[in-house]
């Protein structure tokens, strides 16, 4: 008889959903597709900062302010919280990976591309400690620096001869993870990547030949798909939801060919469990 596995803790999952019909439809699809027992902490854009409800710096800072809210809500510095976009679809539980990776790290992110070690902010998990708080506050400071501040040039320019770009939260975050001294952070956070099975569309696309389809790189052992490409399009929400729905159908069609998934007291987070389960799903 295999020992009963302890379930992962019920982590708080913070996300932002607008009140309009389109945002609520995406919200319902997102929440309905979760595969973990999260403690849902839903917020409206204006709950975090008035500027968060409009385009520009406020939009970029929404997730930073959301994560700071999670840190403030936490009972102690060892508590774990998760911040997520809604343009994701889940196929298997991700909380076990979060628990495992945060055993010796402060924060873990999705990988943004296969050809560089940049992080993506679509789904990240963190300890609610002072190092993470300082990093989040540093990102906000970097995004809101006036152009004539001497630190602006150091933050927004990657190297000699490169163009200076208006810094987004993700851009500043990637800079500070590697060079915290740019904004005077006293200590670097211990950070890492979530497994590649927690996939971003941008990562998959950098692995695909120009003539290929990135579906071929998406296997039935994947945990999540994040439709993070094409965010600047005027119909971005509809495009993202179509991608999420399409990937869900692709996964379900291929998973049905690969295995039967049994429910069992001993089943944890593996894609196929054959332990004499009670019923087939």
Summarize the structure in words.
There is one protein chain. This protein is an alpha/beta fold. 36% of the residues lie in helices and 16% in strands. The protein contains 9 helices and 11 strands. It has helices spanning 21-32, 45-48, 57-73, 95-101, 130-143, 150-156, 169-178, 201-207, 236-258; strands at residues 12-16, 39-43, 80-84, 88-90, 107-111, 119-127, 191-193, 198-200, 224-226, 262-263, 279-280. The strands form 3 sheets. Strands 2-1-3-6-5-7 form a 6-stranded mixed beta sheet. Strand 5 and strand 6 form a beta hairpin. The longest helix is centred in the C-terminal third of the chain and has 23 residues, at 236-258. The protein starts with 11 loop residues before the first strand and ends with a strand. Residues 52-58 and 259-281 have low confidence and may be disordered.
Number of strands: 11
Q: What structural class do you assign from the helix and strand content?
A: alpha/beta
Helix content: 25-40%
Percentage of residues in strands: 15-25%
Radius of gyration: 20 Å
Number of helices: 9
- Sketch the topology as an H/E string, one letter per element: EHEHHEEHEEHHHEEHEHEE
Q: Kindly, what is the distance between the CA atoms of the first and last residues, rounded to a whole number of angstroms?
A: 23 Å
What is the 3D shape?
globular
- Mean pLDDT, nearest integer? 77
Unreliable residue runs: 52-58, 259-281
- Largest beta sheet, briefly? 6 strands, mixed
Q: How are the strands of the largest sheet arranged?
A: 2-1-3-6-5-7
């Amino acid at each position: 008889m295999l020992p009963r596995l302890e379930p992962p803790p019920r982590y708080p999952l913070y996300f932002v959903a607008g009140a309009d019909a389109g945002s609520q439809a995406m919200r319902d699809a997102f929440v309905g597709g979760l595969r973990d027992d999260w403690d849902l902490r839903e917020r409206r854009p204006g709950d975090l900062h008035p500027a968060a409800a409009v385009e520009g710096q406020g939009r970029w800072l929404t997730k930073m302010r959301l994560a700071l809210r999670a840190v403030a809500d936490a009972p102690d510095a060892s508590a774990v919280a998760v911040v997520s976009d809604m343009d994701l679809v889940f196929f298997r539980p991700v909380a076990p990976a979060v628990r495992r990776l945060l055993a010796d790290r402060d924060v873990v992110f999705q990988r943004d591309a296969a050809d560089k070690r940049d992080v993506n902010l679509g789904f990240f998990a963190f300890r609610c400690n002072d190092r993470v708080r300082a990093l989040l506050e540093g990102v906000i400071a970097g995004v809101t620096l006036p152009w004539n501040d001497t630190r602006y040039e150091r933050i927004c320019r990657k190297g000699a001869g490169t163009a200076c770009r208006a810094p987004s939260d993700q851009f500043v975050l990637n800079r500070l993870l590697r060079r915290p001294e740019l904004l005077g952070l006293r200590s670097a956070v211990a950070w890492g990547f979530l497994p590649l099975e927690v996939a971003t569309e941008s990562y998959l696309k950098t692995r695909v030949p120009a003539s290929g389809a990135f579906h071929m790189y998406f296997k039935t052992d994947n945990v999540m798909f994040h439709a993070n490409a094409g965010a600047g399009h005027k119909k971005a929400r509809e495009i993202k939801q179509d991608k999420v729905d399409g990937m869900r159908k692709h996964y379900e069609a291929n998973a049905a060919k690969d295995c039967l998934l049994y429910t069992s007291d001993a089943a944890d987070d593996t894609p196929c469990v054959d332990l004499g389960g009670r019923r087939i799903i």
